[in-house]
Design a protein that fits this description.
This protein is of the alpha/beta class. Among the domains are: 4-93, Ubiquitin-like (UB roll); 323-430, no CATH class. A hairpin with a 2-residue loop joins strand 23 (405-408) and strand 24.
């Protein structure tokens, strides 16, 4: 018959409590959970994270057959009771927020309510930001309860300096150019979006206590006013990768009412081309805690891929370009009201089914977004309209109704409406195939380097705003996600934004991200012998 043990619990906030019904030999985290003190178990109680740490103040616990005596800090999922104990529960270890799905993101792990910036008086608000190469998104958050109050998003004004990180790096060759790009992302983008988010939430900027920012390494360098040019030259050396705290004044974040000394926390990056957006996503999805092999694929202007296999983490980056976000395409646009978001092409009988975001008539569509272009590649190829190289097959082209055919300086194009409306050209298809090839070849190369096949991946986490609207079977059919099946894919949205929110609400996750980045082995695709051949193969449609 097991003996009962007394646990004296001292929460960081609340009164001291005695638990008298815990059995000797019980796992501490289970005993606490059974009596109203659930702790973070992001790793599924496998001792891989620090989410359930407690402070042993009196008594002793058994950890892996070793007696640990107070004072000590330990993981409660590894500790067994052997007698009466007194423990302190840090706020960071308490589950206050369960996994959640937001409007454009998903946090798949439990997290505490222990804000990075403590609410003090009227300064009870924080912000979380994803600085993307093409778009920027801001969340305004109530620090007292973790509630997301509002969001605001828009294009990154740095676009005028180039539509991808390589062109931005090249543009930053002088201090004056770096200052101009910093002003574009801070003064022209972040500040107005922060004001917009405050207005939507009905909160003045003087209530902001601090904010967190995720983004790729180049974007964080330009935000901080750092010279980005070493990122563009081998060995691709970053000025900084570790988490960095700046003040609003340091980056000239000037918003009426926002104190210049407001802290802004940049999340840690992994490498020159595997940034804080990926560190954030790897934690927010929980993929680093998966028992079976898993893959994180973030599709945006830059494509980043992380493989988790047996606890080991390997990553690579590939230049997808902005095509999936509609940039550079004749009728391309981001996913917004009025854009064509779903598209199906049939040839016999000829039929075009198109759905716009918001239900606008196709003839008045505001353009075509990236997900619909993927639909086009998959269904036009399946219908026999496109050949392997992405060109219109002559016989199929001749069979199209005349009002849907268009020929101009870009060659042949298919009009979605007869005699007008948005269209898809062969030049568009060529740009899409380049972006598709970069992602597909990167995935295959990373898997082959680790000796893993696509069918062995238990879960492919598809991240990025683009993925939220993506028809997964079509993405597989056109070769964007080569060798996978739809039931392996989980669409998780903007995981960079999710990680920024996670770090804002649960300060312990910032340390976890810092530890995570040091574990990742980065593969430079340009140094992999057959990557170029694989890329060329993926320029074709299956």
């Amino acid at each position: 018959m097991s003996r009962h043990c007394t646990i004296i619990v001292e929460p960081e906030h609340g009164e001291r409590v005695e638990i008298h019904t815990a059995d000797e030999g019980a796992i501490l985290i289970n005993a606490l959970s059974a009596h109203g003190y659930p702790l973070n178990t992001r790793c599924g109680q496998r001792g891989l994270c620090r989410g359930c740490e407690v402070v042993l103040k009196e008594g002793s616990l058994i950890v892996e057959n070793t007696t640990v005596t107070a004072p000590a800090t330990l993981r409660s999922c590894r500790a067994r009771l052997s007698g009466p104990v007194s423990i302190h529960l840090p706020a960071r270890s308490r589950i206050e927020h369960k996994p959640q799905v937001g409007e454009t993101f998903e946090i798949a792990v439990p997290y505490a309510h222990d804000p990075l910036f403590a609410a003090q008086g009227m300064r009870d608000t924080g912000f979380a930001v994803d600085i993307g190469t093409t778009t920027v998104v801001v969340l305004l958050v109530d620090l007292t309860n973790g509630e997301v109050l509002s969001r605001a998003g828009g294009f990154n004004a740095q676009i005028r300096f180039g539509d991808n990180v390589l062109t931005r790096i090249d543009a930053g060759r002088t201090p004056e150019a770096v200052a101009a790009m910093q002003a574009a992302v801070v003064s022209e983008t972040l500040a107005p979006l922060l004001v917009q988010a405050c207005e939507r939430a009905g909160r003045a900027p003087d209530r902001i206590a601090g904010g967190t920012i995720a983004g790729n390494t180049t974007m964080l360098h330009l935000l901080a006013g750092e010279d980005p040019t070493p990122l563009g030259i081998a060995p691709f050396t970053a000025r900084f990768l570790a988490a960095r705290t700046l003040m609003a004044a340091d980056i000239a974040l000037a918003v009426d009412g926002l104190p210049p000394g407001t802290p802004v926390q940049l999340l840690p990056s992994i490498a020159a081309y595997v940034g804080a957006d990926i560190t954030a996503g790897a934690l927010a999805t929980g993929m680093i805690f998966d028992e079976a092999p898993s893959l994180l694929v973030d599709i945006g202007t830059n494509g980043e891929i992380v493989l988790q296999h047996g606890g080991a983490l390997t990553a690579c980056a590939t230049a997808a370009g902005p095509a999936f976000e509609g940039c550079g395409l004749k009728c391309g646009t981001r996913a917004r009201e009025g854009a064509v978001g779903d598209l199906t092409i049939n040839l016999d009988p000829f039929e075009i089914k198109a759905i716009t975001i918001g239900g606008l008539p196709l003839s008045r569509a505001a353009g075509i977004c990236g997900s619909a272009y993927i639909d086009f590649l998959a269904t036009a190829r399946a219908a026999g309209m496109l050949g392997h190289a992405g060109r219109f097959i002559a016989a199929a082209w001749d069979a199209l109704p005349e009002g849907h055919r268009q020929i101009d300086e870009d060659g042949r194009a298919l009009r979605l409406c007869a005699n007008g409306g948005p269209f898809v050209s062969e030049v568009d298809v060529a740009l899409l195939l380049q972006a598709k090839a970069a992602i597909g070849a990167g995935i295959e190369t990373l898997l082959e380097t680790a000796g893993i096949r696509a069918e062995e991946i238990s879960r492919l986490y598809l991240a990025g705003g683009f993925g939220m609207h993506l028809n997964v079977p079509h993405a597989i059919a056109c070769g964007l996600l080569p060798g996978f099946k739809p039931d392996q894919v989980r669409v998780v949205g903007n995981t960079s934004l999710a990680g920024a929110l996670l770090a804002l609400i649960d300060r312990n996750t910032l340390d976890e991200m810092e530890s995570l980045r040091e574990r990742v082995e980065v593969i430079e695709l340009n140094l992999v012998g057959d990557f170029e051949d694989r890329y060329i193969e993926h320029l074709m449609l299956p």
